[in-house]
Automatic annotation (TrEMBL):
Pfam families: DUF6495. The lineage of its organism: Bacteria, Pseudomonadati, Bacteroidota, Flavobacteriia, Flavobacteriales. It comes from Christiangramia antarctica. InterPro entries: DUF6495. This is DUF6495 family protein.
Length: 157
């Protein structure tokens, strides 16, 4: 398994897609029940293959990720060949940017000495999707990139 198995809830949401997946392998509903009952290891393998296919499809479309902690924000733009990072760190430990008031403070004090902004670019060496998945496993969320675009303009000014 390359990524992670989908959760029970995710499988339930993707019920029709899973049926279609089984159908592409000429497995009927009856045959699937039989496989689950008599060959659970094969059923497990099919669930893993389906999970990887779904993850691969999702990861192929990812262009932006965000990861927040109390005093840091990591904004990623991911292209075919590289991963760009804008990192914002608030040095005032009383500020929690995961709260509305903390984020408002950050917006008002972006150029303050208590705010460090870093940028970095990393060339993707081997497997783009595996790099993205690792960031998601660490807590990053897939986004449309609004924050990245905003801060990219701030950094360029």
């Amino acid at each position: 398994m390359k990524y992670a198995r989908l959760t029970k809830e995710q499988f339930e949401e993707m019920h029709q897609e899973f049926i279609n997946f089984l159908a592409t392998q000429s497995i009927t509903a009856e045959e699937w029940k039989e496989i689950k009952a008599s060959k659970p290891e094969i059923a497990e393998k099919e669930l893993d293959i389906f999970s990887d296919l779904i993850w691969e499809g999702v990861l192929n479309k990812v262009e932006y990720l965000e990861h927040f902690s109390q005093n840091q924000m990591f904004l990623f733009q991911i292209t075919e060949n590289d991963m760009k990072l804008i990192a914002i760190k608030v040095l005032n430990e009383d500020i929690d940017i995961t709260t509305r008031s903390g984020y408002t403070w950050l917006q008002k004090n972006l150029m303050d000495d208590l705010v460090d902004i870093y940028t970095s670019t990393k060339t993707i060496q081997e497997d783009r999707n595996k790099d993205i998945f690792a960031l998601i496993q660490q807590g990053a969320n897939i986004t449309k990139g609004d924050l990245y675009t905003y801060f990219e303009e701030v950094v360029q000014d």
